[in-house]
Amino acid sequence: MPDSRLSTLRRPTLRESITGAVAAAGVVAVCASSAVSVADNSVPSRIALIADQQPVAEQAQAAQPAPEPAVEAVAAALPAPEAAPLVEQAEMRAATAFYPDNLHGWISQALDVMHANGIPGSYESIHRNIMRESTGNPRAINLYDSNAAAGIPSKGLLQVIDPTFAKFHVPGTPFDVWDPVANIVAACNYAAHTYGSMDNVHGAY
């Protein structure tokens, strides 16, 4: 005799069975999609993505211009300039130094030129002879002595006649007997050849 409790159970209808099957299929699809998403985000996938991007980064780095050599390296590779001779260096210092436009400045500049050219003479001796010959006036001229009578008057600070100035003029100074520095240097050059040095001149020369 059949159990009376089993008679109370109802069999599902066809619609209910189909609905249950569709729901189960949806759950399976969602699980499968999640599995694929996790697989795409896995470590091997990220390594593959980085490997694919690596050649692009290397190409971009290779395309960058090489850095220019440092200024210090370029300067070190250049040849060192040759030093000017000592006489030329002294003449350049004399030409660029500042000298006051007065008797002290003229003597100081003349001494620098003289030392650069090996012409002896001291500040004291030059100043002493200038004060005797012209009292420090670079435009002084003697129109009364034998030189003046011969048409070649003595001129300038150290009363130099034109032929003497032309013969003993020192290159690097103006070729002008009235120029105070050129006058001093030419006179000291003449004194060096005639008396040994302007230091030895104590009267008319």
Automatic annotation (TrEMBL):
Lineage: Bacteria, Bacillati, Actinomycetota, Actinomycetes, Mycobacteriales
Pfam families assigned to the protein according to its UniProt record, in alphabetical order: SLT
Taxonomic source organism: Nocardia jiangsuensis
Protein name: Transglycosylase SLT domain-containing protein
Domain Transglycosylase SLT: 130-200
Ranges in coiled-coil conformation: none
